[in-house]
Amino acid sequence: FLFLLSRAVCDRRLAREVMDDDNSGRVASGGSFLSGLIFAAGWYLFWGTLLRARTECIEWHTDMVDCNASWVPPIGDRPKAPDGLISGAYWAPGILSTFGLVGLNIISWEAVSDEGGLGESASMFARVWVTVSLIFMFTGLGVSIWCLVTDLQAGPTYWHWGGVNTFIQNLLILLSGFLFRLVRRSGEHSI
C-alpha cells in the first residue's frame, strides 16, 4: 500500500512539473509575442506621427507649400513644426531605447545572477552590460521627456503631437523591454 501511495505522489509531482514547464512555456511565448507587439506599436506610433505631420500641412519651412490636403491654408495659418522635429532630435530617444532594449534582452539573466559558475569576470561583465543597457533605456525616456516639455513650451502656434508621441513611444519601448525580460528570466525558456 505504501509503495502504491508513494508512487502516486511521485506521479503527481512529475505531472505538476510537466504542467508547470508547459505553462511557463506558454507564458514565455505569449509574453514574448505581446512584448514584440508593444515594441512595434511604439515605432508605428512614431512613424505615424511623421506621416501625419505631412498630411496635416505642418509648416516645416516657410517655402514649403506642397502637402497632401485638398485645401492648403495660408502659410501664417498653418501649425509650425517644433525645432526638434525639424532637426531630427525626436529620433534620438527611440533609437537609444531600442539599443537599450536589445542590450537588456540579448544577455542571459542566469549570467547576470550567477554567483561564480562562469567565473567572477563573466558575471561582472554581464552586470555591467545590463547596467549600460538600462542607462540607454532610461536616457531615451529622459530625452523623450525633454522633447515633450520643449514641444509643449513652444506655444499654441506649434504642432505638439511630435513630442507627445515620442514620449508615448519610449514608454512603450520601456514596457516592452521589461515585459520580455520578465517572461524570459530563467529556466528552459530564458534567453
Radius of gyration: 24 Å
Extended strand count = 0
Question: What is the molecular shape?
Answer: elongated
**Element-by-element helix/strand order:** HHHHHH
Class by alpha and beta content: mainly alpha
For the biggest sheet, the summary is: none
Instruction: Determine the strand fraction and express it as a percent band.
Output: under 5%
- The number of helical segments is 6
Percent helix range? over 70%
Mean pLDDT: 78
Low-confidence parts: 1-19
What distance lies between the first and last C-alpha atoms, to the nearest angstrom? 45 Å
Description:
The chain contains six helices and no strands. With 191 residues, the protein is mainly alpha-helical. Helix 3 (91-106) packs antiparallel against helix 5 (120-153) and helix 3 runs parallel beside helix 6 (161-183). The model is unreliable at 1-19 (pLDDT under 50). The two termini are 45 Å apart. Helix content is 72%, strand content 0%. The chain has helices at 2-55, 83-87, 91-106, 109-113, 120-153, 161-183.
Summarize the structure.
This protein has 191 residues and is an all-alpha fold. The protein is 72% helix and 0% strand.
Q: Which SSEs are present, and which pair or pack?
A:
Blueprint: H1 2-55, H2 83-87, H3 91-106, H4 109-113, H5 120-153, H6 161-183
Spell out the key features of this protein.
single chain, 72% helix, mainly alpha, 6 helices, 191 residues
